Amino acid sequence: MKDTDIKRLLYVHLLCIFSIILSIFIPSFFLENFSVLETHLTWLCICSVSVTAVNLVSYLVVKPNASSKRSSLSYKVTRFLKCCIYFLMSCFSFHVIFVLYGAPLTELALETFLLAVTLSTFTTVPCLCLLGPNFKAWLRVFSRNGVTSIWENSLQITTVSSFVGTWLGAFPIPLDWGRPWQNKYSVWLMVLTESARETINQMKDHGVTSEWRFF
Question: Any keyword Endoplasmic reticulum (predicted)?
């Protein structure tokens, strides 16, 4: 069973990486003058949507936390609305944190918010897909030795890695957005964050994942 879960987990992560690659090339066939660097805001929107869609479909197909109880339509709708609220709260919370760390309050606010959306896509969305809008389950998973499955262990690692990747991207750059090259900050930060996720996934293939439970 554990080997099966590892394979399914690997497929989910590979699909996410593949969706990012497709978001780089596919839009150029439909959008004129599309470029990751020149139209980076558009690309971030497309990338966030594609990664979110892949996560939703993947977890619906794999069903790592499938319940034997049948849920009513109203329960599913309520759960979905709660997930949307959690995601929006996550985006605004990250946006506020970035502003507190030095990003301008009004100038280039769209770039800052899209960075918050990108980070939420790689942290909050997987949590919602696996754990749902259950804050107690979130606290359990991200507490010391709180994971109960390889899916939760992977969620813990990839979420923390996304935060660390974001911090490493911001650490050498003052968040004053005062220079032209800083406008593309969110683009290469996205690449850095995904690289961190991919590195962790490769570590899992070599059996390193189990050691992280006691980190």
Answer: yes
